[in-house]
Amino acid sequence: MRMILPAAMCVAAILASPALAQSAPERVTRGNLVMENIPEIPGEVRERLRQYQNVRGAMFSDFAPDGGIYITTRFGETDQIHHVAQPMGARRQITFYDERTSGATIRPDGSGQFLFTRDVGGDEFFQGFLFDPEQSRSIQFTTDQIRNQGFSWSRDGRMIAWAAAGWGDADYTIYMADPADPTTAQEVLQGEGAMSPVDWSPDGSKLLIGRYFSINEARLYVLDIGEGTLTQINPDETNAYGAARFSASGDSIFVVTDEGSEFRRIMEIPLDGGEKRIVAEHDWDVQAMALSPDGSTIAYTTNEGGISEIYIINAASGERLPAPDLPVGLIGGINFSADGSLIGFTHSSAASPGDAWTYDLSWQELVRWTQSEVGGLDTSRFQTPELISYESFDGLEVPAFVHRPPGDGPYPVIVSIHGGPESQARPGFNAAFQYWQHELGAAVVVPNVRGSAGYGNEYVNLDNVFLRENSVRDIGALLDWIATQPDLDENRVVVYGGSYGGYMVLASLVHYSDRLAGGINIVGISNFVTFLENTAGYRQDLRRAEYGDERDPQVREFLESISPANHAHRITAPLFIIQGANDPRVPLSEAEQILAAVREAGGDPWYLVAMDEGHGFARQSNRDFQREAETLFLRDVLELD
C-alpha cells in the first residue's frame, strides 16, 4: 500500500524532489498558506470581491426552550452558534471558537443544554460537546483522535448515542453516555462498516442503527440495548434508506427509501414483519423527513428538478395538511419544536444566501427569523438560472443550470462541476457565481452529469466503475452545446470543480485541453488508486462502492488507465490546483502528485495549499485569498480586462 505522508512532510517532500528541483518555481509561505506562481493580488481585486465575500447565510439549528431559536452563521472566521430571541431580532453569539462548529441540537429534557460538534483544521475528526447555558460553558464528552458522528438523543434526553472510528478503522463502534458526565460512556455495539445511530425507541430500550454502503444500498437494524441483540429490518431486501424514525408506539418505523421505486418515498415498516405502507410518494425523490414528537405529523421535502418543495401530512392517514408557500429555492434542516406546533427550517434561493424560518401548523403562519447580509449588493440583479438540457454522446439528456450575465455576449464561460459524484447542483445562492456574472461578465454553466443524484436510480448509476469516463464525455457534449449558443464564447471556456468535481476538471483537461482555456481543480482526485489507498480508512469501502475496488487487478488496471496523473502530458491548458493540507477525504498527496506530473510534462500550474484546512476552505480569510487568486487566474486565461 502506498502510504500517505503527513501534510508538512508532503510539502517538504515535493520541494526536495530531484525531478522538480530544476524547474519548480519559488514556493512562498504566507501564514498558513503555501503557494506557487500566484501573483500579488491587486488592491482593486480585493476591494471588489469584499462585498461578495461578506455575504453570509443563517442556518436554522433548533428551537430554544425560551421561545427563540438557535442558528449557525459567521461574523468572524468560521461558522458559530447564535441565539435569536425573536423574529428579526439580534443574533447573540454563543460559541466563540477559531474552528467551525455544527448547529445546536437541544437536549430534550427541558434543561436548555444542547449538543454541538467541532473539528480541528478541517480534519473531520468531529468531537461532541455539551453546552450548558446556565454555566455558559461546554463539556467535551468524546475522545480526541477519534471521528465521531451520528449523535442521537434519547426521547427523555437522559442519554445520547453516537458512532466513533479511528483514522484507519473501517468499522464504527456505537457508544452511549450522559454527555454531562463523560465517565458514563459505554460501548453498546462493535459495529461493522459505516454504522451510526439513527433514532431511539420511545421507551429508550432500543436503538435504530443504519449502515451505509452506497447511495444505492443501506441497511437498518434494531439494537436491543439490554439484550445486546441486533435485528436487521428487511433482511431480504437491498434498498437505499434515508431518514428513519420510530413511530410513536415503537412498533414500526417511518423511513425514506427507494424500495420498490425508481425514486425515494416514505414508507412505514412494521417491526413484526407485517404489511408495509406507502405513506408519501412523488415522481421525484423525497429528500428529508421529520416526525413530530408525538408521532402524529410528518414534514418532508422533495427535490423536484433541483428545487425544494415542502409537504406536511398526517402520519397515520397520509392526508396532506396545509404547508407554507415559499419562494422558489432550497429547503434544509427541517425540525419540529418540542410541542410539535412549529416547524423550523432554512430556506435559500438564487437571490438569498439562506435564512431561518418557522411555520406554525395551527395558525398556518410563516415567519422569517433572520435576514442575512448580502454585502450591500443589489439582490434584484440576482436571477434564478435557466434550466436547460443537452444531448450527450449516447443520446442521454443531461440537465444543466445556466447563469447569464447582463449584456449581449458572447460571454466567456465557466463550467462548474459538482462533487460527489452522488450529489446534485441545485439553484441555491452562490456568491462566486454572482461575482463571475456581474464583475467578470462570465456565464456560468452548471451541469448535472450522469451519476448525479436527484434524477432516479438509473441516472445515478450511469457512471459506476467502468462507466466512469462517460460522465467526462458529458462535459465534451456540453462543450459542443456551448459552441451552438451565439451568446457563449466557445473559445473562452474554463472548467471549475471540487472533490470529485476536481477529478472532472482534471479529466476534462486530459481530454479537451484543445477546447478549454483552463481549469481550476479544488481538492480533486488525480489518481483513483492512490486516492482509494490513502483516503481515511473509515471512508475506503464507501468510495470503493462507487469507484471500484482497487484491490481487484482488473479494476485497478482500469482506474490507472483513466487517472489524470497518468496522462498529465495531455494537460496543456493552464491549471490551478487548490488543496487543504488536512483533508481526510482527498489527501494532500493527490494535489502534490498532479502538480509534479504536470510540471514534469512541461506545464507550470498555479498552486495553493492551506495548512489549516481540510476538504475545502472553511476559514473566511483563506476563502478570501482563494477567491482573489481564482479571479487573477480567470482574468488571465479568459483574457478579461
Automatic annotation (TrEMBL):
Keyword check for Protease: yes
Domain of life: Bacteria
InterPro entries the record matches: 6-blade_b-propeller_TolB-like (IPR011042), AB_hydrolase_fold (IPR029058), Pept_S9A_N (IPR023302), Peptidase_S9_cat (IPR001375), Peptidase_S9A (IPR002470)
Name of this chain's protein: Prolyl oligopeptidase family serine peptidase
Domain Peptidase S9A N-terminal intervals: 198-369
Organism: Glycocaulis abyssi
Keyword Transport: no
One Pfam family recorded for the sequence: Peptidase_S9_N
Domain Peptidase S9 prolyl oligopeptidase catalytic positions: 429-638
Keywords: Hydrolase, Protease, Serine protease, Signal
SUPFAM superfamilies: alpha/beta-Hydrolases, DPP6 N-terminal domain-like
Signal peptide limits: 1-21
